[in-house]
């Protein structure tokens, strides 16, 4: 049985992540994922799986011609895990023993801005 492809537009991304990103109360990954729009999440997972399991889209040609859909769907699904691990910044920073993750990222960002003379 073939499911419909859900195009990962910017509007869809906002709908999929709005409660997760906007909610200050969602402190754990489980809470963040539980607050997601379940229908959109399920459709996004189904869209992504169609490129890999038994379906008409499980072939190199479909993955190549629909690379934008494949890639954006992957990142829509992975974004919550990235934000949980790194917060709002998708870059790494060296962390000293006495420093929190947020402090290390803030220090690293200041260093980058200083080096770029911003």
Description:
The structure is a single chain. The chain has 118 residues and is mostly helical. It has 6 helices and no strands. The model is unreliable at 22-26 (pLDDT under 50).
Blueprint of the fold:
Blueprint (H helix, E strand, L loop, with lengths): L9 H13 L6 H6 L3 H12 L10 H6 L1 H20 L14 H15 L3
The major β-sheet equals:
none
Low-confidence runs of at least 5 consecutive residues? 22-26
Percent of residues in beta strands: under 5%
Number of helices: 6
Shape by Cα distribution: elongated
Which structural class is indicated by helix and strand composition?
mainly alpha
Please trace the helix and strand order, writing H or E for each element. Answer: HHHHHH
Short description:
Helices cover 61% and strands 0% of the residues. It is mostly helical and 118 residues long.
């Amino acid at each position: 049985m073939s499911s419909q492809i859900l195009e990962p537009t910017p509007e869809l991304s906002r709908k999929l992540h709005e409660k997760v990103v906007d909610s200050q109360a969602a402190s754990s990954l489980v809470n963040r994922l539980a607050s997601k729009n379940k229908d959109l999440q399920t459709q996004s997972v189904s869209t992504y799986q169609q490129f890999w399991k038994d379906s008409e889209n499980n072939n190199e040609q479909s993955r190549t011609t629909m690379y934008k859909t494949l890639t954006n769907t992957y990142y829509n699904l992975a974004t919550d895990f990235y934000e949980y691990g790194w917060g709002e910044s998708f870059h790494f920073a060296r962390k000293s023993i006495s420093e929190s993750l947020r402090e290390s990222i803030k220090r690293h960002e200041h260093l980058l801005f200083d080096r770029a003379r911003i």
